[in-house]
Amino acid sequence: MNETSGPHIPRTPPRRSATFDEYSIAEIQRAAATGIYDIRGGGAKRKLPHFDDLLFLGASVSRYPLEGYRERCGTDVVLGTRFAKKPIHLKIPVTIAGMSFGALSGQAKEALGRGATLVGTSTTTGDGGMTPEERGHSQTLVYQYLPSRYGMNLADLRKADAIEVVIGQGAKPGGGGMLLGQKISPRVAQMRNLPEGIDQRSACRHPDWTGPDDLEIKILELRELTNWEKPIYIKVGASRPYYDTALAVKAGADVVVLDGMQGGTAATQEVFIEHVGLPILAAIRPAVRALQDLGLHRKVQLIVSGGIRSGADVAKALALGADAVAIGTAALIAIGDNAPEWESEYQKLGSTAGCYDDWHEGRDPAGITTQDPVLAARLDPVKAGRRLANYLSVLTLEAQAIARACGKSHLHNLEPEDLVALTIEAAAMAQVPLAGTEWIPGKTGI
Amino acid sequence: MSSALKEMTRIEAVTFDLGKEKLRDLSVALHALTPQSNQTSWHILNPRGQHAVAVGVTVPVGIHIDGHVGYYCAGMNDGAVITIEGNAGPGVAENMMSGIVHVKGDASQAAGATAHGGLLIIDGNASARCGISMKGIDIVVKGSVGHMSAFMAQSGNLVILGDAGEALGDSLYEAKIFCAGTPASLGADCEEKTMTDEDRAILAALLERSGAKADVAAFKLYGSARTLYHFHVDNAGAY
To answer: Is the residue at A47 inside a domain?
Structure first.
């Protein structure tokens, strides 16, 4: 024994706080250095109850399945059957969510239009108006009617196939939008009637109506403007889905779009994204119940979004009662967002492939969330559109595989009875039994 | 035949009674008009506060509405000259692209909201949020306007012969506000500006076009201080 060192005293290893974890400490340090909240793109990144917490039961003695490669499993959906003279008929129940030219490059918008059109589904404009390229490449285009009304004009309204009145989105229910100066290019500025290079704010409330009674009159105006032809969607961020759905129906919606907190945004405060709203799993059943209570389930269609990644997610959303889903983040990934080929550039930006979310800065190496013409030129809209079409096809095939295994001849025949939950929380939210039991928390006894 | 006589024979006056016929039928008739149509003068009777009257007209016809209208009258107008012989509900001439809308009475909230062009004349007062998010329209209010008028107004001109309510021009972009009376208060980032000869010319022209009797010298100009154009921690208290 070394006389100077004394007896060896075991030491505990450094222990990180579960409360003040690595991310929390870094955020406190960042906030202290800058004095301003963190802004980023994307949706909630925290672990949330989600479709992964549900399982399909599949066919068994009491159910028989359909042959995977021989028996038909329909995938089409008709949206806007309540009042619109010209409802939309899509080949697959997976639509592309609203994303603006401005937030995205022109090439990215074109790619979304090309991919969606190849498989027979719709794309959606965003906060910034409709570009001729977008209209040209999207066979079915939904035109968003937002509080800012940037780029809103009668000619484009009449060119749309449907109108989506946006009240909120899942990443920020109750919040307005922002597009920082780096992305207010001359063309974006011109479309939005704004000075170039400023940090643009979008209002959180519509300028000429405030509540559901006013909204009903606004919808009347939109229908008169467009000869009652276009389906009118109402999009809400998931927060009070039962009442929001009921009021949207009362206001005259043909379609309700419900976006969970995993749904992405172009730019919002991190604290807003992670702490406001509901995960989509918790929102679908109350919305469906509202439609059922009004006798309008499947008559007013329900589109849900926020964290849809796979055909299993599509099938689960439909089984819970949705008519279709919308994808945003997944569509961007499909066309090239966060691709490993740009890893060295992500690292220069302080990120890594798979984590990059500083979409508001306009420096996206993949050329998608940018207005920089050099970066945007990296995205080939034809090839990217093909990738999106491939991905949408896979989503559909996967959902069909599950539906056939459950003995369903159409995706819309999936039902809650086909599902069980792996956790008590998911069972309560999805209102399906905990696996291995008949227990639906809040609904049945133990 | 003289050109004046040719013009007279081209014009066919149409009377539409909303007390007897449906709004839907009016919209269909107005939207069927083309630039070559000879039905260039429309007289709408008994609107009785109905909403969405004469919306989305895209040809330069004259439309005279004999009575009060509800929400969104002349919404998205693109070229028509629409006169309302009465009061207008919320959102009159909302998102107008071009043309003229003339309210002979008072207007409710959000008059001219988000409108890109054209001229909105209000002979009486306008309620809250007049010219909210305006994007190029010219608005002349011969009375006073309510609170938060020209909120987030992006471009165009708002002329107020009377007073303005609280928070005039809050979060203003590049729209100009001419006010002859007294604003109760100015909103965030709105400040009084020095009026240039160009500004005076714009104002004089709008007063003349709208038939407003007022002296240019009586007005003050308000515009954006542009301190909120970029997010900065020191501006956090302004919102």
So the answer is: no
